[in-house]
């Protein structure tokens, strides 16, 4: 039973993250680890890249965001 619990927890945590693809107006694609957060104060979408870096992009340059 003890060996099963970590496996179940890992599966649940892995299921929580949902990668997204940001498409910019110029056609550039950015893949994120999870759904980008929109910061209303700055007007930027904030996200984590696959390499673990925290990045942001101006909402005026974003064409669409979709879940992968």
Automatic annotation (TrEMBL):
Domain Lipoprotein YgdI/YgdR-like SH3-like: 21-67
Region spans: Disordered: 48-68
Keyword list, A-Z: Cell membrane, Lipoprotein, Membrane, Palmitate, Signal
InterPro entries per record: LSM_dom_sf, YgdI/YgdR-like, YgdI/YgdR-like_SH3-like
Gene3D superfamilies reported for this sequence: 2.30.30.100
Record's protein name: YgdI/YgdR family lipoprotein
Organismal lineage: Bacteria, Pseudomonadati, Pseudomonadota, Gammaproteobacteria, Oceanospirillales
């Amino acid at each position: 039973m003890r060996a099963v619990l970590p496996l179940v927890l890992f599966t649940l945590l892995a299921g929580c993250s949902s990668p997204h693809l940001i498409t910019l107006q110029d056609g550039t694609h950015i893949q994120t680890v999870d759904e980008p957060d929109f910061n209303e104060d700055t007007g930027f979408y904030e996200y984590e890249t696959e390499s673990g870096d925290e990045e942001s992009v101006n909402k005026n340059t974003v064409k669409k965001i979709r879940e992968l």
